[in-house]
Amino acid sequence: IYATLKFFLFTLVGSVLLLVAMVYIFLTTGVFDLTLLPQAGFTPTVQLWLFVACFAAFAVKIPMWPLHTWLPDAHVQAPTAGSVMLAGVLLKLGAYGFLRICLPILPEASVAAAPWVMGLSLVAILATAWIALRQQDMKKLIAYSSVSHMGFVTLGIFALTTAGLQGAMLQLINHGLVSAALFMLVGNIYDRLHTRDLAKMGGIAAVMPRYGVLFLFFTMAAVALPGTNNFVGEFLVIVGSYPVAAWAVVPATLGVVFGAAYMLRLYRVALLGQATQPAVLALTDLTPRECWLFAPLVVLTLGLGLFPQPLLDLTAPVTAQLLEYI
Q1: Minimal CA–CA distance to 108: which of 58, 47, 28?
Q2: Dist CA 2 CA 106 (whole Å)
Q3: What is residue 276's predicted lDDT score, i.e. its pLDDT?
Q4: Is the confidence at residue 28, as pLDDT, over 80?
Q5: Which of 78, 97, 135, 159 could be joined to 241 by an S-S link, Cβ 3.0–4.6 Å?
Q6: CA–CA separation, 87 vs 100, rounded Å?
Q7: pTM, whole model, 2 decimals?
């Protein structure tokens, strides 16, 4: 109930402000057509107020620090399917709003707000990564890691460069695949152990070798190991953002280090070592059917890591069009 109310209130406040902005835009222009609104020609002051209203809604959805606190609670209480949808789809809608509404319709306000948004992105990357390092609940750890990874997305979007925007778009897809797989793996072990507490685990890989291999693969993808999809996205974001905001990008790279620290800690504590808990010793490994459920995610994670060019070619014209508005 607490998680539900918190999620509802955060979403309500942001959505009401977005609705007010949408009503104002319609009363002023008479259209909702996103292809016509970039020519609306709002004054800088109006753009700023509209940007604040839209930003409130989209920052909650991503979520950006400090509007992120609903996400760990929602993930912990949600069933596995809910967490997969939350991480794989819902969090991407905030970034979609920035790309589809803020940049083309409110370009001057987006440029003016870019340093502030990049500053918040930096805080999100570092603060939530540090918090993730201290978590004992597997789901909460991955939830905080999602906030940290989405910080790279907003950093790339508001760098307003070709590489930054393409890296952000690529990272939206990459994070959706890897985080969804991790939540599925956590849900799988929760169904067997009925706990997500790291203190009650250890040695799972020795008892469940197939599970251990899959968890290691997606752990490496989460820490952006070269050859996996997250590496390409984060690398493009860093390269695209550095020329315009080195002050944010240089410390943000520590988020990659923290990411490796908390994900490897998760793997070491939960899966490595000697299995001593009776519940762990009684575990059965993944069935062939369960392994096949992860097969598409493995293929896409490797495929986009080794061959990202088709997706980059797909986003290139969109990126060029967005930069024309700025």
Answers
A1: 47
A2: 36
A3: 77
A4: yes
A5: 159
A6: 20
A7: 0.86
